[in-house]
Design goal:
single chain; 161 residues; alpha+beta; Alpha-Beta Plaits; 2 domains; five-stranded antiparallel sheet; two-stranded antiparallel ribbon; extended
């Protein structure tokens, strides 16, 4: 049930003929790791994990601790429209960077106008690291948002449906 992918590259083959050159593409094959190997890799990086056997499927399910950051209304929401728009662009760019670097797995706003504006799920080993990354968000630094973080457990490799 675990689907952490590591790609392995095969050699590029170039075949020459009298008339033209043919270049074959590099084929990437995912390397399938066992649950035990994934668990060991996560432990070596400082992540908290546990596993159990699903009674119905008999699959070993690997659970990992993530951190959910609730982005809440901050005390400084007096920015004019232009300032708020610039902050929003910087905020989205920052969250995109967190995703690209592998620190955040998913982020998004809530659909209402409540005090909790959105969430980010951080895929990092410690609360301290999640807190540091969340508080480096331009919206948080400007005081427009504040962060509330909670540890959260989820099955490694499962996806939203």
């Amino acid at each position: 049930m675990v689907s952490c992918r590591k790609k392995e590259k095969e050699n590029t083959v170039v075949e020459e003929t009298a008339k033209d050159t043919v270049i074959l593409e590099i084929v990437e094959k995912p390397v399938k790791k066992s649950t035990k190997e994934i668990k060991e890799d996560l432990k070596a990086k400082g992540f908290k994990t546990f596993d159990y056997v699903d009674e119905k499927t008999k699959d070993t399910i690997l659970m990992q601790q993530y951190f959910v950051a609730f982005l809440k209304n901050g005390p400084i929401r007096t920015q004019n429209e232009e300032e708020a728009e610039i902050l929003q662009e910087e905020h989205l760019a920052y969250l995109g960077k967190m995703y690209e670097l592998g620190y955040a797995d998913i982020s998004g706003p809530f659909g209402d106008k409540g005090d909790i504006r959105g969430i980010t799920i951080y895929n990092v080993p410690t609360l301290k690291m999640a807190d540091s990354l969340a508080n480096a968000d331009p919206m948080v630094k400007a005081g427009r948002l504040v962060i509330e973080i909670h540890p959260w457990w989820a099955a490694k490799g499962f996806s939203l449906r």
